[in-house]
Amino acid sequence: NACTASGTAACATLSGVFAKLPPRIVHAQTINVAAGTYTDQVLLNDIDVNAAITITGPALANVTPATGSATGTLTTVSNTNPAVMTDSGQAWTTNNLLGQWLVMTSGTQNGQLRVIATNTATTVTLASPFNSAPATSDTYAIRSPAAVFNASTGVTLAVRATGNSGGASANGVTISITGLSFRQTGSDLAACRVATSNQTVSFINSSCITTTGTAQGALVFSEGVLTLSAASIVGSGIGLITSLNRPGSLNPNNSFVHGGSSGISTFPNSSLVLNGAQTWTVQTNSASGFEGVWK
Length: 295
Description:
The protein contains 1 helix and 28 strands. Helix content is 2%, strand content 46%. A hairpin with a 3-residue loop joins β11 (113-119) and β12 (123-126). The model is unreliable at 165-170 and 291-295 (pLDDT under 50). Strands 1, 2, 4, 5, 15, 16, 18, 20, 22, 23, 25, 26 and 28 form a 13-stranded parallel β-sheet that branches. Strands 6, 7, 8, 9, 10, 11, 12 and 13 form an 8-stranded antiparallel β-sheet that branches. It is globular.
C-alpha cells in the first residue's frame, strides 16, 4: 500500500513500515498494527536506534477453545503461587489454553491479566498470581493477540539494533512490542530473535511461538536488555535460548516460558542477569527445565 495514512492507505505489512524508517532513529516512533493474520517476516535489522520505538497491536481478543467457553465466572480462587482459578461450569480440553491470557472482566481486578501455564477441564494455573485476589463470582475471558504474524521460513521477528552513533547514547531507549503474536511454523527455526547494543526490547502481552522442530528456541536472546511483561514464550523444542556475547539482562515478570524439551537453554560462556525479584513460570514437557550455568 501507499504507506501514507491510516485506513486503506496504511502500510500492508510491518516490513513496509520499517522500510519507511530512517537508518538512524533520533525521534520517537509509534506504529499501530491492525487486527489480522499476516504472513510477514518482521525484520528490524541493523538500524541505529537512539529514540523509542513503540509497536502496538489491538486489544487482546477472545480465543476459541477446543472445548468449553472463552468466558465464564470464577467459582473458586486460590491466588497463591501457583495461582489456580476454577470455573466448575467449564469443560476445557487439558492444556488447550496453555500460553493464552486469563483477563478479568469484572470486580476489583477488572482489566488485569495473567498468562495461563496449564489447564484442566475446570481450572487454569497462572504463570504468576494477581496483585490482589479476584473474587468468586468475578467474570473473566480467555484471550490472545488479535494481530498474528506467521512465517514458515526464516525467523518471524528479528530485532537487531545498534546505538551511540554520532555520540548519542541509546542507553535506556526501549523498543516495545505490545499485543502481538509471532509464530514460526517451519522446522528448527526461531519465532523471535533479539540482539541490541544498549537498548531494551520489551514484549508486553505478546507471544513468540514455535510449532515444529526442536533445535531452536521460540525466543533467542543474544545481546542487550530483554523485558518480558505478561509475555508468553512457547517453543515446540526450547522456550528461551540465551547466547550472549556479553552480559545481558532479563526482566521476565509475570511471564511464561515453555519448551517441549527445555524451558531455557544457555550457550557456553553466556552471562545473564535476572534483575531483582521476578515472579514468572518456566515449564517443560521433559524433566529438564533449565540447561546451562546460571549466575
